[in-house]
Amino acid sequence: MPIRIPDQLPASDVLREENIFVMPETRAATQNIRPLKVLILNLMPKKIETETQFLRLLSNSPLQVDIELLRIDNRPSKNTPTQHLDTFYRQFEMVKQRNFDGMIITGAPLGLVQFEDVIYWDHLKNIMSWAKEHVTSTLYVCWAAQAGLKLLYDLPKRTRKEKLSGVYRHQVQQPFHALLRGFDDEFLAPHSRYADFSSEYLSEHTDLDILATSDVAGVYLASTKDKRNVFVTGHPEYDAHTLHNEYVRDSNEGMEPVVPVNYYPNNDPQNNPRASWRSHGHLLFSNWLNYCVYQQTPFDLEHFSEANFTKDD
Question: Per the residue annotation, which of 134, 237, 280, 292 is the catalytic one?
Answer without folding.
Answer: 237
